[in-house]
C-alpha cells in the first residue's frame, strides 16, 4: 500500500548633532526590540523565542513539538519542569501563532500537574482539520527508586497516556478517549508495552490507517497501528541484534519507494557517538529490517529529527559535536534530494548560554528539534534553547 506523509504544501553620513544621534539610537533600539533574532545560517530565518522562563524548576523547558496548519498558523507544545532535582517530568504547556510566528500567544496549560501526577512528554499529530496531542503521565511518588526518598525523580514509570484533540488549529483542546497498549506498572498482568513513549510524528497511510513510532522499556522500538485513531495495536518491534538501542524514533517514507517506511533513531552512545540507526519496513510496520548504523545521519546521544518533505527530500536536524564541552549545544541540518547524495551539514542553531538554570544542566543547549512543513520545502522548526527557552524559526530547503 502506498504511503503519504500528511505534510502540507513564507552607508549613512555620520550625524553631527547630539539630538540627531540620540534620535538614531532610539530608533535602532526600537527596531531591535521588534525585529526577529538573527538567522543562524542560510535557509534559516525568522528566529523567534516563543516563551522563556529562567525561574522554572526541574530540568526546565524541554521536548517541544510543533504543528503548522498553514504558513501563518502553528501551535507549539512543550514540557515545563516543576520540582527541584527531578528530570523528565513536569506539566505540558502550549502557545500558538496566527501571523506566521511574529507573535505567539501567552502560554496555556495543556496538561496540569497534580498532587498525584506529572507529565513526561507531548507529541502532536494532524489529521485533516483535527490536531491531536499525545501525553505520557507519570506518578509523583515512586518507592521503587534506590535513593529511598519515595519520590519519582526521573519521569518513570509512565502509567497512562492521555490524548487531547483540537478542532480550532490548536487554540483550545478537549479530552479524546483512546485505547493504547500500555502496561500498567500497578498490576501483575501484562497489558502491553512498559513505559510507552512517543517522540516522533505519526504518519497516515494511503488507505487512511495510521502508524505511530514508539519506544518503550528496554529500548524497544516499533509502531502502533490504528484504523480509527481510537484503538491502537502494537506491531512487532525492530530487531536489534547488535544492541544499538535506538531511542526517540522518527518515522517517515522512503524517497525511493512510497511503499517503504523508514525509522530513524538516536543510537546507544557506547556503540556510536556519531551515527543514528535506521530500519525499514515494506509492509506498514508489520516487520522491520534490523537496526543498522547510518553514517549519513548524525546522532550525538540526542534526539534526531528526520522527515521526508512533499518533494521527496530527506531533512535531518541533529546535534553533531563530539566535543564534550559542546554537548547538545549546536544543531546542524542536512538535506538529501531524490537521486542525489547527501548535502553537507549546515549550521541551524548555536545560541549563547544565557541562563544558569535552577536544574544546573543545559546551559547553552540548542537541542531536541521538531519540524513541520507548511509549504513545499518550507518548515517551521521548534527546539529547546538553554533549557530556559522554546524557540521557533523557518527553514527553507526548497532550492536544494
TrEMBL record:
Keyword S-adenosyl-L-methionine: no
The Sialidase domain, residue ranges: 75-352
Keywords from the UniProt entry: Signal
Cross-referenced InterPro entries: Sialidase, Sialidase_sf
Pfam families: BNR_2
The keyword Signal appears for this protein: yes
Annotated signal sequence range: 1-41
Entries under Gene3D superfamilies matching the protein: 2.120.10.10
Taxonomy, superkingdom: Bacteria
The name this protein goes by in its record: Exo-alpha-sialidase
Native organism: Streptomyces liliifuscus
Amino acid at each position: 500500500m502506498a504511503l503519504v506523509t500528511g505534510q502540507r504544501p513564507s552607508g549613512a553620513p555620520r550625524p553631527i548633532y547630539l539630538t540627531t544621534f540620540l534620535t538614531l539610537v532610539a530608533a535602532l533600539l526600537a527596531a531591535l526590540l521588534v525585529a526577529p533574532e538573527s538567522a543562524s545560517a542560510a535557509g534559516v530565518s525568522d528566529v523567534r523565542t516563543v516563551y522563556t522562563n529562567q525561574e522554572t524548576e526541574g530540568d526546565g523547558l524541554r521536548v517541544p513539538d510543533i504543528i503548522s496548519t498553514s504558513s501563518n498558523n502553528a501551535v507549539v507544545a512543550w514540557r515545563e519542569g516543576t520540582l527541584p532535582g527531578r528530570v523528565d517530568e513536569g506539566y505540558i504547556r502550549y502557545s500558538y501563532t496566527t501571523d506566521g510566528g511574529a507573535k505567539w500567544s501567552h502560554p496555556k496549560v495543556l496538561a496540569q500537574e497534580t498532587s498525584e501526577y506529572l507529565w513526561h512528554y507531548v507529541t502532536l499529530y494532524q489529521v485533516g482539520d483535527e490536531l491531536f496531542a499525545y501525553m505520557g503521565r507519570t506518578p509523583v511518588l515512586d518507592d521503587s527508586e534506590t535513593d529511598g526518598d519515595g519520590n519519582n525523580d526521573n519521569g518513570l514509570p509512565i502509567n497512562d497516556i492521555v490524548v487531547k484533540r483540537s478542532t480550532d488549529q490548536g487554540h483550545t483542546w478537549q479530552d479524546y478517549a483512546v485505547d493504547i497498549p500500555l502496561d500498567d506498572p500497578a498490576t501483575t498482568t501484562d497489558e502491553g508495552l512498559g513505559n510507552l513513549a512517543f517522540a516522533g510524528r505519526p504518519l497516515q497511510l494511503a488507505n487512511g490507517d495510521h502508524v505511530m513510532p514508539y519506544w518503550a522499556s528496554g529500548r524497544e522500538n516499533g509502531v502502533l497501528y490504528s484504523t480509527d485513531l481510537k484503538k491502537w495495536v502494537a506491531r512487532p518491534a525492530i530487531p536489534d541484534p547488535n544492541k544499538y538501542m535506538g531511542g526517540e524514533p522518527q518515522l517517515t517514507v522512503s524517497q525511493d519507494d512510497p511503499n517503504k517506511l523508514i525509522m530513524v533513531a538516536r543510537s546507544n552512545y557506547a556503540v556510536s557517538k556519531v551515527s543514528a540507526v535506521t530500519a525499514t519496513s515494506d509492509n506498514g510496520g508489520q516487520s522491520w529490517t534490523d537496526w543498522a548504523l547510518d553514517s549519513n545521519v548524525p546522532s550525538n546521544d540526542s534526539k534526531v529529527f528526520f522527515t521526508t518533505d512533499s518533494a521527496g527530500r530527506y531533512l535531518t536536524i541533529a546535534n553533531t559535536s563530539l566535543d564534550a564541552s559542546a554537548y547538545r549545544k549546536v544543531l546542524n541540518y542536512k538535506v538529501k534530494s531524490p537521486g542525489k547524495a547527501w548535502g553537507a551539514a549546515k549550521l541551524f542553531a548555536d545560541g549563547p548560554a544565557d541562563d544558569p538554570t535552577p536544574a544546573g544542566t543545559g546551559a547553552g543547549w540548542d537541542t531536541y528539534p521538531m519540524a513541520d512543513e507548511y509549504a513545499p520545502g518550507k518548515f517551521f522548526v521548534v527546539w529547546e534553547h538553554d533549557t530556559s527557552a522554546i524557540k521557533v524559526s523557518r527553514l527553507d530547503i526548497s532550492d536544494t
